[in-house]
Write a structure and sequence with these properties.
Blueprint lengths: L1 H15 L7 E8 L5 H17 L9 E7 L2 E10 L10 H12 L10 E6 L13
Antiparallel strand pairs: 1-3, 1-4, 2-3
């Protein structure tokens, strides 16, 4: 009995000292096909809602931007995967949304339809010392 208890305590200690998740912040650029802008905006929003519901992403930071250049409309979505391994092991529900994203985008201006850039978070807020 004591040996079993010691084993359980040891396993609990290992479980609580497991390596923390390695988050990954990404910037995704979507080049919308002409006429597909509204549908693509909805799909990007659905991706975020689904990823949050499945606990795949951190709630902050998240921003979606829409821009226009000479070649058409594009969107930029910035968010952080809870763990860098998630995109390589995404659930089917997310992969289905990715299929919609690919259907609604196009390569143009020498750029692919979708561009994924790993980013590093920079905290520009001033440091406040305790008691200051």
């Amino acid at each position: 009995m004591i040996r079993t208890l010691a084993l359980l305590v040891g396993l609990a200690a290992v479980a609580t000292t497991a390596a923390p998740a390695d988050p990954e912040t990404v910037m995704v650029t979507f080049r919308a096909k002409a006429g597909a802008e509204a549908e693509l905006a909805k799909v990007i929003a659905d991706h975020w809602t689904t990823a949050r519901r499945l606990d795949l992403v951190r709630p902050d930071p998240h921003v979606t931007l829409k821009g226009q250049d000479a070649s058409g409309t594009y969107f930029i979505d910035i968010f952080t995967w809870r763990d860098a391994s998630i995109p390589d092991n995404a659930p089917a529900e997310i992969k289905t949304i990715w299929g919609d994203m690919n259907r609604l985008t196009e390569a143009r201006g020498g750029h692919p339809a979708l561009t994924f850039t790993e980013m590093t978070m920079i905290d520009g807020s001033p440091t406040v010392k305790p008691g200051a």
